[in-house]
Amino acid sequence: MSESSSDISDDIVWHEHSVDRALREKVLGQRGCVVWFTGLSGCGKSTVANALDVMLNRQGRATTLLDGDNVRHGLCAPPAVLASEHGEEFSQRFGLGFGAVDREENIRRIGSVAALMAGAGLITLTAFVSPYRKDRDRVRAIVNETGGDDFIEVFVDTPLEICESRDPKGLYKKARAGEIKNFTGISDPYESPESPEIRLDGGAGRSVVEMATEVAEYLKQHNRI
Ligand SMILES: Nc1ncnc2c1ncn2[C@@H]1O[C@H](COP(=O)(O)OS(=O)(=O)O)[C@@H](OP(=O)(O)O)[C@H]1O
Ligand SMILES: Nc1ncnc2c1ncn2[C@@H]1O[C@H](COP(=O)(O)OP(=O)(O)O)[C@@H](O)[C@H]1O
After folding, report:
1. Which residue ranges make up each domain of the chain?
2. What is the per-residue pLDDT for 16?
3. Out of 109, 146, 180, 210, which could bridge 175 as a Cys pair, Cβ 3.0 to 4.6 Å?
4. Whose atoms come closest to the Cα of 171: which ligand?
5. Which fold, 21-76+109-221?
6. How distant, in Å, are the alpha carbons of 101, 116, 135, 159, 194 from that of 42?
7. How far is the CA of 59 from the centre of ligand 1 (A)?
8. What are phi and psi for residue 7, nearest 5 degrees?
């Protein structure tokens, strides 16, 4: 007989550590936060986050970058990747695809990891489509639970036509041909942020460096760097 989840949760007690967040941040000389890039596939999330990461690293800031494609190779791998090592039942339970519930779990896992990293004092950059407002808002609530406005949502607002014309991985072409189901912007929804901390206009012909600089300026103005 398996234990019910409520029975288990009663037995899990939060452990306070001697080296707390404040001590970790004192060593790093900065406050941790999560800079959450969201937008359509091909909008420029990874490229801008990467450029920002380089800028901050050069300034001596402790950062980390979690990126959709990379995380889906490990923490949030699809069933097909898990099956050979872990078997069919495991891969079906824990492997993630692109249905709404799978995306919800993807963002929940990443949000938890990002919150832990911010709690370790890192400027944590993330680049995920994260199409559902509710999922992003849940991460915001978890990250801001510790009292600060540590969740900074960056909407990379690039029109679908531009994303589709870039199509660096040929995914839009496949989605249009019906070879990929639930493709964001084509056959799956994208819920734009209503009041992101930063909106980058990806349709205005601005360079990657200009956009990354805008985010860096925001961090500076808000005493993050
Ligand atoms: N159906 C579908 N919809 C959207 N994107 C798809 C899909 N299938 C594969 N891909 C590729 O996976 C990347 C998105 O993964 P994410 O983890 O960011 O997605 S999500 O946040 O859970 O929605 C996304 O990466 P980016 O292009 O960097 O955004 C795509 O390359
Ligand atoms: N501001 C920009 N101007 C021109 N091209 C861009 C810009 N930002 C990104 N790109 C290009 O668009 C493509 C998709 O960018 P990428 O960062 O991979 O998007 P995402 O991570 O949102 O899927 C890449 O080929 C990248 O070089």
Report:
1. 21-76+109-221
2. 86
3. 180
4. 1
5. Rossmann fold (3.40.50)
6. 22, 28, 20, 10, 21
7. 30
8. -60, -45
Please, which residues have CB within 8 angstroms of residue 42's CB and are 6 or more apart in sequence? 158, 162, 163, 164, 166, 167, 168, 171, 172
Burial class of residue 166 in the structure, from the number of CB atoms within 10 Å of its CB (0-12 exposed, 13-18 middle, 19+ buried) = middle
pTM of the predicted protein model: 0.96
Q: Do 214 and 155 meet the contact criterion of CB atoms below 8 Å apart?
A: no
Active site residue 130: yes
Residue 45 to residues 38, 62, 74, 177, 184, Cα–Cα distance (Å): 7, 20, 20, 25, 14
Q: Of 218, 223, 221, give the one whose Cα is nearest residue 196.
A: 218
HSE-CB at 4 with a 13 A cutoff on CA atoms is 3
Q: Which helix (H) or strand (E) holds 64?
A: strand 63-67
The catalytically annotated residue of 9, 130, 165, 192 is 130
Query: Which parts of the chain sit beneath pLDDT 70?
Result: 1-6
Instruction: Look at the block and give the residue holding tokens 């986050």.
Output: 49
